[in-house]
Amino acid sequence: MATRLDSLVIDANRPRELAEFWAQLLGWTITFADDEEIDVEAPGDDGLLLVFGTVPEAKDPAVKNRVHLDLASTSPSDQAAKVDRALALGARKRDISQGAVPWEVLADPEGNEFCVLEPRPGYTTTEAIAAVVVDARDPLSLAGFWAEAAGWRIGNQEPVIVGLRAPTGRGPWLEFLRSDEAKAGKNRLHLDVAPFADGDTAAEADRLCGLGARRIDIGQGDVPWEVLADPEGNEFCVLSPR
């Protein structure tokens, strides 16, 4: 039995507008839309789907998201162009006390932080998104859990950051970055995993609970997926087999 990383879900007050922002910034396409969600996908298969869902709560501007996106660049001019494009589409520069760093910290139109990285050798095969970054008290331990949940392998291990890589070697990294900040409230960005077509949602949820997750109630009601929290309290869903 196993699960695979399926999607990154982003809470939004105006999901259509936010999906259009990210589709235009990344050069991706809106591939599905209904009253419940809007999906944005890369032109090719990078193994990650962005899903925008409606929530009534606005993001607290005083609270930094524990999950954020890092965007890749191929040169200093490419980095500058991506920052300019993001700002033109409605992003704004964001100060999270990062100091003098070679990357740019921005916020999307609903205040979700993201970074446009300087060129880095490790991100040459990631396409537009370099990494999904998750704040972690214990990066190595949390990466170990998510290696089992996502079906990815540890491809980089440093004292403050541990990165998981998809089996294909392409698409974004899933990185766990050391942070001493406590989790506050429900994450506005969360990962979803799914069993393979011959798998079972409840059985996989049980397996992940055995690895340190727990079932939680966030008011989801009667749904065909299981809502869990990982060992550091980050919400995620085990979807139906696919």
Write up this protein.
The chain has four helices and 16 strands. It has helices at residues 15-26, 76-89, 139-150, 201-210, and strands at 3-12, 29-33, 37-41, 49-54, 67-71, 92-93, 104-107, 113-116, 129-136, 153-157, 161-165, 173-178, 189-195, 214-215, 226-229, 235-238. The strands form two sheets. The chain has an eight-stranded mixed β-sheet. An eight-stranded mixed β-sheet has the order 6-7-8-5-9-12-11-10, with helices on one face. Strand 15 and strand 16 (235-238) form a beta hairpin. The longest helix is centred in the middle third of the chain and has 14 residues, at 76-89. The two termini are 13 Å apart. The mean pLDDT is 96.
Note the topology.
Elements: E1 3-12, H1 15-26, E2 29-33, E3 37-41, E4 49-54, E5 67-71, H2 76-89, E6 92-93, E7 104-107, E8 113-116, E9 129-136, H3 139-150, E10 153-157, E11 161-165, E12 173-178, E13 189-195, H4 201-210, E14 214-215, E15 226-229, E16 235-238
Could you name the key traits of this structure?
about 240 residues; alpha+beta; eight-stranded mixed sheet; about 20% helix; about 35% strand; globular
Strand fraction equals: 25-35%
Mean pLDDT: 96
What structural class results from the helix and strand content? alpha+beta
**Main sheet attributes: strand count, strand direction, barrel closure:** 8 strands, mixed
Name the shape in a single word: globular
Low-confidence stretches: none
* Strand numbers in spatial order across the main sheet: 2-3-4-1-13-16-15-14
User: How many individual β-strands?
Assistant: 16
Amino-to-carboxy terminus distance:
13 Å
Q: How much helix, percentage-wise, in residues?
A: 10-25%
Oligomer: single chain
| Tally of DSSP helical segments | 4
Q: From N to C, what is the helix and strand string?
A: EHEEEEHEEEEHEEEEHEEE
